[in-house]
Amino acid sequence: MAATQMYNPVGFSNNSMTQAVTSEKPVIPLVKHIITDEEIGLLKGSKLQPINMNRVVKLLTDPHSVMLYDRHINALQRLVRHYEKGFPMKDLVQVCKVLNVCSDKTQERPMYETLICDILKICSLPFLKEKSSDELIYEQIVTESVSQLGYLMRVPSRDVRKQICKTLVSFYTEKPSSQEVQKHKPTSVSYNQNIIENSDVSETLVKSLALLENDIAIKLAVLDVLQHFSKNSAKNCDQMLRVGAGNRICSRMTDADPSGQLLFRSVDILWNLLEFGDGGELATQLDNLSCINQLRDAFVFQLTQGYSHYDRQLRNDLLVIATLVASKCPNAPFVETGFAKQLTLFATFQEVKSHNVLVKHLKLMKNHEDFELKKLLFNILVTLSKDSTAVPVLSEGHLMLSLFSFVRANENTMGPRDWTSAQFEEVQLHAMSCLCALCPLMIEDYMTCQGSTRILLLLEWCVGKEDFGGHGNSIHGTGGRGSKRAQMRHCLRLLRSVVSTGDEVVVQDLADQGAINQIITILLNAIHSQRGDDAVDVEMQSDMLLILSCLCDGDMHRKELFGTTGVDVTIHYLNTDSKLLSSGLGHHRLLLAAVDCVWCSIVNCYGTEDYFLEKEGVFLLIDLLEVCPKNMHNLILGCLLDLCENPKTIHHVLTWRGADNASAPHLFCDIFRNEERELGVRRTKDGAILDHTRPLMGVLQENQGVIPQPAANPSQAIVDVSENMRAKIYSIFCKIGFTDLPGLTVDDHVTLTVVEKYLDFKMGEVWNEVIAELSEEQVRPVTPDLEAIEAISRAIEERVHIVSGTQQELLEAQQNQDVLDEQEFYAEIRENHRQKEKAMNDFTDFVARTSNFALLKAAGDRQELSIEASRLQTKYKESETFHSTDLKALHTTTFSGRTIAVDSTSNRLTGGPLGKYDPKSGTLRERKFIKQLSNITAK
């Protein structure tokens, strides 16, 4: 109540008080007039004055006003004036209708052409949007409207077509300097480009080229549009390729053109299609006689008649496009059109003299374009060599002789017209890379050019002491800057490609020229080099080992040339640390090449084989087999199998011991089990046979089933022999035997029973396939054959059961042995416990004897009785010669002597060996007896 009186002292009610306060506030008048931005001058730009587009369309199409041409023109002129800043997106449908109606009237009334061009000029401006969401809302309408612009190319008017091209280029690329319209914003260039990509205007323009073959000016304008559209746009390129743009453009790119733009624009479009489109589709479209002829004529014209930097670039672009066609379409008609012959002529005219008119006055300079042309010519000829019909053309053009002219030592001095030293090195490496692909295809030309001599001379220069500062240019010179390694690398690659053909004439020629000794010497120098190997060094060493393998394979005399020095080299590489296999430098290839070199260069040559065994080569091979990846096992097992033909090898195999003292037979059995595990062969958990009808068949072979095949084709059972290593392991065991093998476990013995009968099981598998194929073909053998087949099947099945029974016996014996071992182990534990109990009882007796004299005396009496019982004479004490050996008054039950062994006094009492040493004076000090010791002495 006090609070109430304070706020209401005179007694006014609350309602009357609220009314008094409200009446005192000033009243703000409400003004309903709104001032717009336009009235106060905030809007910039011109004001859009829209017109009723539906009325314009009705005026043009209504039957009653269709002949009122003057009114049509006035209405269209007014439309152009009102929308001179651009068309709003919402009116594009009516604008397209107006354009289509006017285009249909142009043939009768040419006056409409000017109006169409005026409207198209406005269409070149970005469309206007009132809201930001208009771009998304009207996207489909805008896309169809742009497509309609392309359809207007049907109008047979040069002015209209030219204006369409200008409109599309401007709409796609240009941003207007000023397009300010009140309450509207123009679309962005990126939005316009997206609209073009989503429309089909690119396809329409490509199709319209067929209408413009006789009008070069309009054709150039259309190509200009396509040139802009195909630049940096994969969608436009795909649309153009979808309607055959490559074929349409390339087939007419050498038409008469006074301006010289047709070829340039055509090549630029093809290049854009190659870069941003599907290269394979483009090559397919160019794979025909007309396009190849056009490429040939354009290239020859630019090469022989061109003189400017622009002409050289255009020439090289044409050659790149031709290379694409040759690589994607190996059967392209380059030979039929004569293009391959001309390319060979242009590639070789500098090194091989020719009287052809095309190259009579042709010169290649040191500039970058001519240098690139030389490499491109070599590259396209290598690509053409994939077609067998082109190889004779390359041979007639002396391509091999031209390429081998670069296989020579690099000279520091170059003539004024020659390539620079850096350019010559790059062309040299490129030429050697081309030779790697061409020499196997042109062996006769290789021998004619004395290729072996040239390569070996260059290889000798590479390892010589002549100074050479390599430039290491291009991808072919990787790792060779400042040295000859790049040249040496390509020499070895070239030798590898030549000897891999297996041509006996080439191999014999290389051997006669001392290639074996030369390569072994290089390998010896690489072994004793102090510099660490990188990827290039490892690659070159691998190539040299492969070359030696190819040279020595199958020839005893060359294996003798390989000799003990080659064995030492091979042993060094077999000693490669297995940890380097995952280094990424290619050591896995090096090890494979070393094993292959052993197989091809050492095996079957008794002198080198014996030396290889003396160097413990077999041990190294099995060591490698133990640690290497699975993909190397097949090669190593094959090499070991051939080595086992030498009886001395078997002792080495049986002597080998690996990790955890594992033997070689155990390792072979383990590999056999792993192989069957990967094949999915059905085995029990102990490795015994589970499926008696398919003892060797894997899951893949079983799923494929039996398919009737001709007799010349191998069946699945035969293919299985070469696809896995089980046959090699069986063959190795046939050499070393199946009994008395060291280091085998029970699992190994179980596996060995299957290995021993591998050939019988495989034979049964083949017979089962024969029976299944006959059943599939519904063929019944004659009765004697059928009886023989059934007898063979029963015999093999019986063998499977016998092997399975043997495996079960082995497993049961092992199980019984495990039980015996377990019992012996428990017996040993029990014996240990008995010994502990006996020791405790002895200690108890000892304590009892020391504490109770009666027990001690009784123990002494028992001892006397035991001694007397052990003697043969019972009354020996009564004889005259008896002498007592016991000590009188001895209270022990042990046999004691007259001397007692006492333990040494502990260091705790004496102070240790340095107890007399005085560290301050450095002398021995007088001994001080410990008080406890002196008390003991006093007592």
From TrEMBL:
<protein>
    <recommendedName>
        <fullName>Cilia- and flagella-associated protein 69 ARM repeats domain-containing protein</fullName>
    </recommendedName>
</protein>
<dbReference type="InterPro" id="IPR048733">
    <property type="entry name" value="CFA69_ARM_dom"/>
</dbReference>
<feature type="domain" description="Cilia- and flagella-associated protein 69 ARM repeats">
    <location>
        <begin position="51"/>
        <end position="770"/>
    </location>
</feature>
<dbReference type="InterPro" id="IPR016024">
    <property type="entry name" value="ARM-type_fold"/>
</dbReference>
<dbReference type="Pfam" id="PF21049">
    <property type="entry name" value="CFA69_ARM_rpt"/>
</dbReference>
<dbReference type="GO" id="GO:1902093">
    <property type="term" value="P:positive regulation of flagellated sperm motility"/>
</dbReference>
<dbReference type="GO" id="GO:0097225">
    <property type="term" value="C:sperm midpiece"/>
</dbReference>
<dbReference type="GO" id="GO:0097730">
    <property type="term" value="C:non-motile cilium"/>
</dbReference>
<dbReference type="InterPro" id="IPR011989">
    <property type="entry name" value="ARM-like"/>
</dbReference>
<dbReference type="InterPro" id="IPR048732">
    <property type="entry name" value="CFA69"/>
</dbReference>
